[in-house]
User: Fold this.
Amino acid sequence: MSVRSKLWLATVVGLMSIAVLAALLLPRSFALTAISDVIQSLLLLSGAIAFVPLALRGQGRLRLFWSLVALGLMLWLAYQLFWTYTEIVLRREVPDLCAWDIVLFLHLVPLMAALGIRVQFSRDEYSYRVGRLDFALLMIWWLYLYVLIVTPWQYVLPDVATYNHDLNDVYFAEKLVLLAGLLGSWLTSNGEWRKIYSSLFAMNLCYSAASTLANWAIARGTYYSGSLYDVPLLASMASLTWIALRVKSAQAQPLASGASAPYGVWVARCSMIAVFSVPVFALWAISDELIPPPVRLFRVALTLMAAFTMGVMIMVRQRILDRELVRLLDHSREAFENLKRLQAQILQSEKLASIGQLAGGAAHELNNPITAMLGYSDLLLNTPLNAEQQPLAAKVGQYVRRTKSLVASLISFARQAPAPKTSLDLNTLARTAVKLSEHHWKALKLDVQTRFDNTLPKVMGDSNQLLQVCMQLVGNGIHALSERDGKILIASTEKKGGLCLLQIATEALPFVPGQARGCSPVDPEDSLGLSACQGILQEHRGRVYRERRADGTLLLCMELPSVEAAPASTKETTVPATWQSQPYA
Assistant:
């Protein structure tokens, strides 16, 4: 606790000590009344001000909780200021039929509303809205009860004795309900909130005892302002400042949400009981023949108004409940659809896993003849060959090595084993894919154009797997052209933010350098080859897109995250250097 808080508490204790000494030493007089009333006003003012910083520092329901507590204390302070003004400034007794009594009665209503928030427990927005309505119903019921029982003897048919009797009974019942709520909150909380509720319970218990003691003294004619009967009241007022200053806001945080469920059920039940009690009060107002007719008429009219108001609130509550049920139904339908899609994806994954196992087995079977072919090609290169045969034999060895690398990549993909990644030039991979597909597009008499960005940053990945993806994209583009008798295939690269893009486009798609095109995700059912490519790119934190337009033209896009430029090394690619430098226009 800070030095300022300690000085504040010392001042409060000093004020209370002065009031107690005055009650012990001074006789019944105007001076004693003035000292008692002023000190009570100062103590309530101190308590109300002490809770304001808690409301300003809080957020959401926490701010609302402390604001309601401060509002209840301000209503109590307003009543005390009226009492002080009447006895000190006007120098007369407070009237028996006082209109300000309703302020004293209502000052407990914000405190009960604060308990209804149950700020120590987290709650969803739906429970919060319904909970507010439930407690609004209870608060209206308390106001209705006061006006029903007390007000007729003040305005309809003035009767001081009946007014005081009914007021004390209703106020006593209200204090008992508040104490029960504080006790329940105390027992169901822990940590800092348990201390807060226990302190508030002790304060209200002291206040209730002081109020009951004062009413008993008034009935015996022994009470006067500033007497020893006010000491428990002064203690309860002084404790307000102490409670506010010792609250540790950082520790007073909501707990788990599930703990508030039973409480919320009882709040709803109490609100329903309050609504159903209105007709009972109406029957009581009509059937009690001892009550004068003007009072009975007033109570019946008031009951009809209360029933209408509560009925409107019940309708609003039911509307909120209906909307929540519709939301839950939509959420259930969406969850069911997601489950169906998940089942379809699992089935597709199982199919792809089976195909992967089949491909892995086939790749192992291909390894033996490929190894033999590689050995024979090396032997062939070591035999005397003429100038025309030598490059052909070298090309056979290159294609066999390329096939062996692709088979190894296929085995790695089937095993789902992560391949080592190095810094690669995407332009080189794309150029190599175009070169390896040369026999295919030349046989179809296609015109392949390459438009590569020379400033394209490098990417990190496995050269065999990414080359496989590039060849698949080029092959799909060639296949699309062959189906529609196209003639031009455009392979281009570009940079888009932190991504490197490879785009394969058919002739009908206009090429705009530096402009990325919108593409849609690949449908796994559309192309098994592209699905395998997508699996490879997911391991490289990339993705593949495709766009098929109404006229049959096709655009394929591959995206990979770029890395900082790295020095060239022999690990960047396994393709021949002569292929890396050959442009195709």
